[in-house]
């Protein structure tokens, strides 16, 4: 299985030999609405995903991208995180009459990939598409005064809030700067828990709805999606071939083994869902809680609460501090027996 794919997407067309009754119904992967053949839509270019996104959801993603392009560009599949084909995105934007706004917002970002120097970064106004280039070799930028005459707001680029006056800026200077490092640690923990990395080349991705045997598209390494280990390092019986299939043998009672399909876990642990899609969400939520629990241990409970009170970063990600605190006592799979 592949975790990444960069080919241009091609929308499948039913052949004349396919009876209408056998045509596959197109379902939006975000809102689960049925997509008609004549509707505008996006398809994920990842051949192992190929999930659909309806026009309404794609249009909402485009609007969110316009509101904060430095955070939301390029648009990515909501299932596997693969970038959508930019030509398809541009065609949809043209039809929705937002192309001028797209050029104003996105062209500087696209250009910056090739033109920014090592110690330069883009700073964007949180309230409009205005962008500036700043040097970061001396110190990072915290405040931005928007030069857009329609906007003109001054904002903190750490918490993305508007600055009202000098006193307000002083408060942001002391609080946001102090918490910036910890905020980034939480952001990285959430990002790391939401994907899997190839244990060799570190290519990130999310598996499709097939088995847990992974083959990296970049380096062709075989590895297990559940434990994240290389095939040759996975636990197997002494006389077995060192394959992922051997690694799956006896997983129900051996915590060093992993199941071939996530939905099989429900048979021994009814905390798990029964569908592969929900199981995948359960797995990544568990992994994210592990990462957040590690951050909590490093920075301490008081700082963790202060971080959430200031930025609401834990709440916005859909987690609670209580479940992060209690996560240390949780296990991913409750096995029927434990092997020594």
UniProtKB/TrEMBL annotation:
Q: Does the keyword Transcription regulation apply?
A: no
Q: Where is this region: Disordered?
A: 1-21
Which top-level group of life is the source organism from? Eukaryota
Which cellular component terms (GO) are annotated to the entry?
ubiquitin ligase complex
Query: Which organism was this protein described from?
Result: Rotaria sordida
Signal sequence, renumbered to the chain: none
Keywords in alphabetical order: Metal-binding, Repeat, Transferase, Ubl conjugation pathway, Zinc, Zinc-finger
- The answer to whether UniProt assigns keyword Zinc to this entry is yes
Q: Which biological processes are named by the entry's GO terms?
A: proteasome-mediated ubiquitin-dependent protein catabolic process; protein linear polyubiquitination
**Residue stretches making up the RING-type domain:** 24-257
Which Pfam families does UniProt cross-reference here? Rcat_RNF216
InterPro entries in the record, alphabetically?
Answer: LUBAC_E3_Ligases, TRIAD_supradom
This protein's pathway reads: Protein modification; protein ubiquitination
Any idea what this protein is called? RING-type domain-containing protein
> What GO molecular function annotations does the UniProt record carry, in alphabetical order?
ubiquitin binding; ubiquitin-protein transferase activity; zinc ion binding
Polar residues bias locations: 1-18
